[in-house]
Amino acid sequence: MVAFGPNAGDAGPVGIERCSGGADVQGSNAWIEDELASCNFADERLGRRLSTLLDQMAGAMGDSIPLACQDWANTKAAYRFFANDRVSEADILAGHFDSTRQRVAATTGPLLVIQDTTEFSFQREHPEKIGQTVRVNSGQDQEGRFRMHTVCGLLMHASLAVTTEGLPLGLGAVKFWTRTKFKGTAALKRKINPTRVPIEQKESVRWLENLRQTTERFGDPTRCIHVGDRESDIYELFCLAQELGTHFLVRTCVDRLALGGDTTVDAVMDEVAVQGVHAVTVRDGKGHVSTAEVELTYRSLRILPPIGKQKRYPALTLTVLHAREREAPADRPRIDWKLLTDLPVLSNGDAVEKLRWYAVRWKIEVFHKILKSGCKAEEARLRSADRLVKLIAVYCLVIWRVFWLTMINRSAPDVDAGIVFTDREQEILDFLIPNKAPTLPGGNTLGIYLTKVAKLGGYLARGCDPPPGNTVMWRGMARLIDITLGSEIAPQLVGN
To answer: Transposase Tn5 dimerisation domain spans which residues (predicted)?
Structure first.
């Protein structure tokens, strides 16, 4: 098949933008008008339809298109929107990308740009209309021969801008594709050393494309730290970051040549003495929380490119940081992180800071979880890849907002509730969930009302409970939207 369209990013102060309600979208969904303000469609009616769709799906997260749209006219309009050749996922996300850029500009300090890939699998009678992600072993037949099964689906590679405190500011780049685009690459690598295959012929080029697009979009390369897991351990990415004047922090999986080329990174780091110990909080497979101590070693090294690419790329001076648990525990894998960055690590404080930044990488895993579990993207019944990527692009806007609400409740709970809720919505929440004690004028902050929303979604708010998560937040917001609508139409039905 083909790769699908790409990227963009924007928003407001410290990720806290004041929503300006439009004629079609009001209340808790008024943010939609701001988020789509920079979208530019071939026909303005397409923009209005996207606004309506986003409003409907935000109020029915996880439901099917017919249930979200409520009637045949709106459902048919939604199907036509996703089938329209004049609409691409880049068009849908353009406004959000611009809003992300504005939110980034309104913040200060380091900006973590987290990249990762996720797969969407679908069951289809005609899988060729979507494409494939991978071939898997389906077991043995009656004769004992192994059967291979091609998984129908799409892949999405996203870059999520996050503050060092974990507040998601929005997406900066998104790329969709199927493995058909890279058909034959695996066979090529069986004949040629993989390090000699040009990066442009590999799927991993997506890491470079997203790095370039987000760096150019945000316009402040020195602030950006591009964070990735072991899949992003790509020498070309390191060189591109240096070329663009931006930074990276990745978990390495390759033992590269170091110093003069007669040794490797691991061999050098094995000789480095432990320089500090850091206590980290860990959770095992059963959810039990405990504390583990990791030993820190770090050093600046001259690292060489792969042998087959030494004529094309220069050697780089990078910082290697290892954090390893002293002994392997019995109930979980040992913590063993090997990080690589172009940022200096001159003290234990610097090392702990980089570890904490890398730990924020988990936010994009949460983003993907909401996309699949919350929006149930893999249950969509649209029949072709180009329609599915447009639907997923719409879902991305919905889940970013849910994720933002969840995290703003933790990072800035004391701001004015009016940045999210209308006066009417605050009155409804106060009526449904009264405050336990009288509050001073202006004392009802955003955190108080977001907790009330979470209670509508099933959050118990006991003293020992952690802050509300994404699931209770999206359930609560959906209920608030329904209750607010009921309060608006009730006077028309029964009188004031």
So the answer is: 398-481
